[in-house]
Design goal:
Helices cover 18% and strands 26% of the residues. By secondary structure, the protein is of the alpha+beta class. The protein folds into 2 domains: 69 residues, Alpha-Beta Plaits (2-Layer Sandwich); 53 residues, Ribosomal Protein L9, domain 1. A hairpin with a 5-residue loop joins strand 4 and strand 5.
């Protein structure tokens, strides 16, 4: 599938021409940015980022989307396996324990991997005491 990207600062408009239904909502809604008679047809300097994001959100086919690097970093959750230690979870996460207690975080949290923590599912450093390898 062909994909084209048009960027300004942290915001990137992604266009997938193969799924475009040519509704022209982009062109009629924000002609200073989206103009099929120009090359390139997307001019990111034609409007402020917010206006571009709002117009792209109106695309009925999903052929236009926004790839915002800052937003992706904020919403992507990564899990890193620490050598001989816990699972390090970074990002927005909600943990529900067996007892139904909920823990939310938008930063980072360490989850026990060794089974020895007295604060499961969270790591309490017991992996060091038992010399966990893994």
């Amino acid at each position: 599938m062909k994909i084209k990207e048009y960027s300004k600062g942290e915001t990137t408009v992604v266009w997938k021409p193969d799924i475009c239904i040519h509704s022209e909502k982009c062109f009629h809604g924000l002609p200073k940015v989206f103009n099929p008679n120009q090359r390139p047809w997307v001019d990111m300097d034609g409007a402020e980022d917010e206006a571009i994001r709002n117009q792209v959100a109106k695309c009925p086919s999903g052929a236009l989307s926004i790839n915002n690097a800052e937003e992706e970093l904020r919403t992507t959750t990564t899990i890193e396996v620490a050598e001989n230690g816990p699972l390090l979870v970074n990002g927005i996460v909600k943990i529900k324990t067996a007892s139904g207690e909920e823990h939310r975080t938008s930063k980072s949290i360490a989850l026990c991997r060794c089974g020895a923590s007295s604060n499961k599912p969270f790591c309490d450093g017991s992996h060091k005491k038992i010399e966990f390898k893994g």
